[in-house]
Amino acid sequence: MKIHRVTLLIALAAVLPAxxxxxxxxxxxxxxxxxxxxxxxxxxxxxxxxxxxxxxxxRIVVVDIDKEEVLGEITGTAGVxxxxxxxxxxxxxxxxxxxxxxxxxxxxxLKTISKSPAGENPDAIIYEPGRREVYAFNxxxxxxxxxxxxxxxxxxxxxxxxxxxxxxxxxxARRVYCNLEDKSEVAAxxxxxxxxxxxxxxxxxxxxxxxxxxxxxxRLFIGCHNQKxxxxxxxxxxxxxxxxxARGVDACAFDPGTGLAFASCGDGSTTIVREDGDKLTLVQTxxxxxxxxxxxxxxxxxxxxxxxxxxxxxxxxxxxxxxxIPNTLKILVYSLSPTPTPTP
Length: 344
Prior knowledge:
This protein has one helix and 28 strands.
């Protein structure tokens, strides 16, 4: 049953200002085997359909998040990075980095309907429901391809002043925001004109990867590789507060029901903070697994999902990316404790 935000916030407010035990707020409740060879990238949640989509090498694994088991696969997505969902159209959109294409998927059959051309190495991809358009961010060509979700036609290709990483949409503000990783900036794109209308520095953050949004209060949460997460006013670009995070951040998420923001990091931890007006408060450093850098959040249950695998050991792990052991990929499910307990 979905918990009303006010009720949940009242319960959390009574305990969250105190220091919490690492296991008291979020805790591991399930491991879902995925298996297969090859690495993974983004995770995407369709809360209404109760599905989790895991991009995995040349396919997308579909997980039933109520039964907590794999229910199928989407194939033919070469070098897939991200998966955007248009629930009202029953369509999904995969950024196929190797083919420089966006695959359009029928979510009822998990079959490809068509493909639309993108730029070089499309990576992050999001759905903007206000205009029913898909934004595919092209890492190598420093651009964004905008696709009409219903027809699959390309409606705009917008050059970007840097290498895009992740993105987030604010329907009421008619803006899409994306991290420019190499510039340490956030770019704001007008969804009507598809033009870049603002560029804002993220200092003291550097080299941003993850990006999440509180669309109600117009706040951006920016996960940076110098182990910081700034919170930005999305209307002005002002950095309101910054909080330390762990190493190797990739994804960020925000839960409007609890006011909590998350930064999942490859060192084996996820930083969880609370939005307190214009301030950020650390509430938990959740121990996860090494390499668990990508994440999705189900806002209806407040669960978070992280992908993790086992890796081969290396003599020099500091300078080389370890090789993943085949058939060890799994999804870690973390649930919100109903009664977090403050420590002395």
